[in-house]
Amino acid sequence: MQRYFSKEKIDNRFVLSDDDIYHIRTVMRMKDNDEIIVVNDKKAYLCCLENVKENIGIIIKKELEKIDYNTPEITLIVPILKEQKMDLILQKSTELGVSKIIPILTKRSIIKLKPSDYDKKITRWMRIVKEASEQSHRVDIPKINDILTIKELQNLEGFKYVCSTKEKSKNIKLVMKNVKNCDRINLVMGPEGGLDEKEETELNKIGFESITLGSRIMRVETVPLFLLSVINYEFME
Amino acid sequence: MQRYFSKEKIDNRFVLSDDDIYHIRTVMRMKDNDEIIVVNDKKAYLCCLENVKENIGIIIKKELEKIDYNTPEITLIVPILKEQKMDLILQKSTELGVSKIIPILTKRSIIKLKPSDYDKKITRWMRIVKEASEQSHRVDIPKINDILTIKELQNLEGFKYVCSTKEKSKNIKLVMKNVKNCDRINLVMGPEGGLDEKEETELNKIGFESITLGSRIMRVETVPLFLLSVINYEFME
Question: Nearest Cβ partner of A171 from B68, B218, B236?
């Protein structure tokens, strides 16, 4: 069943955005009495449509049961990558339960964004995680943070790790065994060429422990999928 | 460093395909004495080029150290999906160490291939896994099996699982704890609408145990990435 996020609830009705109403009317061609699911304030509701063609009404029929995923809040800290890779990361990490994405500026990023383009990019990324949240039946949408530098990552709470290629780093399995019962995990990944050594040292200084993901050589966009799969798995009951 | 697979070794030289020689000469514009890595018979060698412009020679300098991944042989059994999703699965599961892909025909596949198109598709898939193997520095290339029906899956050896949405199925974490020290794992995943109930029952009858991947709703192309990430993680030392 089609799902939409709503920001406003008035009595037993929801208000949807113009884009969503266009989607219901024109893309999905829904009719009166058709059912949709509307998510509001982290709860999902079965709703039914009335008067679709004119002043559409979205009427609550019942609240749906909540699914508990057991996973902690996961913040993924990711360099700005080429559009296709960035989109894939946003979509897949939303499916796999990421809570927040912090885009960061790193030395080896191939993409050099002008600060004047930041807002446009963030709007695009917000649209992608919203759509992925609907498709994966989430009751929340991952937050997209403003673009930060590495220095600005110093006040994050929770467990903090940076994906490293240094041989001496602990592997993620050793580390994950210690993060049971944690509320928040922050994970930094590097761009295609990896983080610069100075950047990794800077992260280590502000509390990010270097970890490796084993000996496989993964493309940059595979890294967050691996990380999030493993966290979901480790917190599975 | 650029990597190529070679099927033939003559004394201290490798023979590469015409495509790879075109890539070296025209795409990479390499010169005499440039180095490449050539993989032959599951071993990787540092090589150096001579006489690039005319009768190119690929001379072995030394054999490179082998990386041990500890993972069992993984066969991924996957319905025929739309090209973009199929390509992503092939690329990413190669990165994550799949040994063999068996494409299968399922009732709910949207894609209906004509048998006359099978060979063309298989050639395309073989090219994708070859390129992904080079990029992820593998010393072997996943095998692409002929397209099979579910009935034809009955003689596979090793542990056998089918991804299910049935609530009663065990979750993958419970199952993975029992597959230590195993040589082979066979994993069936369904198409977008899932496997038909009869298909799942048929698989159960020929030894495939139904498992769930937790409560997250993943797109079809995310499933193999999750499965392979988790197996890599579980077999990490």
Answer: B236
